[in-house]
Amino acid sequence: MLVCDVCGQALSSETAVRRHLRRTHLGRQPRCPLCGAAAAPDCEELRRHIEAAHPEPGPPGARRPELAEGLPECPFCGEAAGRELEAHVRARHGHLLGAPGTDTENSEQLYECPMCSLTCTNIQILEEHVDLHLEEHSFSEGGNIRDLELAQRLQTEEDKRQRSEEEKREREEFKKLQRQYGLDNSGGYKQQFLKNMEREVDRGRMQPFEYHKRKADMMECLAFGIDDGKTKTSGIIEALCKYYQNENKDVRRVWLSTGVDHFHSSLGDRGWGCGYRNFQMLLSSLLQNSLYNDCLRDTTLIPSIPKIQSMIEDAWKEGFDPHGASHFNNRLHGSKAWIGACEIYSLLTNLRIKCQIIDFHKPTGPMGTHPRLFEWVLHYYSTDNEGGAKVLCTSKPPIYLQHQGCPSQEMQKLLKQNSDGTSLKLLRRFVGSLKEKQYQIVAVDGVLSLEEKAARCHASQVLTSEKIP
Fold it and tell me: Which 3 state secondary structure label does DSSP give 141?
């Protein structure tokens, strides 16, 4: 708190002090606190009036002239003091009246600046001096305001620049993801196939006549919506069954799925087609099982990748997995988009094939491994037949599990009569070899009625899976 040097009043700030000085003390006409008589605007004249008209009290019994009516105000600070006004004036403002016992008749009246203690000899000079203080402070306050506005503007510009950079970075990352997952409108299977063949011709690895022949074959297959079979390897399960029956090492029991053909990526889908190739393998097994003849009566041959994309789009049009469809903008055909378990589930269910998604959403073993996944697969196949044979060929189709696959050349080595099993290293997976954070599999188990299909379509509005653990 600040105190007025004139009247001693407590004030909250320098601004309040200046306002108080101007309104209360500067330019105010003094009045005698005892009789109310007006005096010239000069404190010395007021002092002489008080001493002449109202001398100090005399001997006991002498009376002081009555005060003016009401409660007189102090001429210096405006405070109402009643009959104690004289004592108040002498106690609080004695320095303005002159010290008792001194000769002030010829002394010069001095006025002290309440802001810097400068002494002035004239009240008008003091007013002008105080005005300079006020103007200086106003200029300082204006400067502070301008500094604040500048700082705020600079901060706003910096925030805008950071938001712009963040948005640019997000756009670049989104485009990168689009390129990675084939959603950048760079073409699909057909465009990539032709581009890669042209590159092979440029490098001398393919003759022009072969280019035109393969292009014609590819265009014909796409027109009919069937796979060209150039990357297919058949007889895998039979070769495995024969190998394990003759193998005398530490393998105790073997469970095999029904027959399945292996499909590998080609020039048209290299780098993104694994999900489609896995579906082709699963479908090749279902086509060999009479249980699914009615569901697959319109799919007697393995469809091409563009055809599979159209089949998934058909499932979306039926109402399956709208959230997943929106992720692809409801369009796969003509793109290089990666697909996964949800798209395969929608496709199979739309064909009335009963299946489920099992989500091993976190590791269940040491070192980030998934032993529960292996336990589930073992249970899936071993419950089909509890016979005592070492090698069991079950009636269960293969499960859909996406991970790095094997090239056709290695698969064909397994079919040779003198195979020593070295190619199995690419097929066999141990607990320690599957260390991704999450795995999803699709398992087929029967057919659906039309009513069950409709119910599953409705349930897929919020597609869920069985989570383990």
Answer: helix
Quote the CA–CA distance of 205 and 347 in Å, as a whole number.
Answer: 38
pLDDT tens digits, 437-469: 999 999 999 999 999 999 999 999 999 999 999
Per the CB < 8 A criterion, the answer to whether 302 and 225 are in contact is no
- Residue recorded with tokens 């993801």: 177
Q: Which residues contact 134 (CB under 8 A, 6 or more apart)?
A: 18
Contact 305, 235 (CB under 8 A): no
Q: From CA 301, how far away is CA 226, in angstroms rounded?
A: 7
pTM of the complete model: 0.64
Q: Are 234 and 409 in contact (CB under 8 A)?
A: no
Contacts of 4 (CB under 8 A, 6+ apart): 11, 17, 20, 21, 24, 25, 77, 114
Amino acid (1-letter code) at residue 318: E
At 446, is the secondary structure helix, strand, or coil?
strand
Question: Could you give the domains of the chain?
Answer: 1-54+68-99 (no CATH), 233-467 (3.90.70.130)
> Cα 262–178–325 angle (5° rounding)?
70
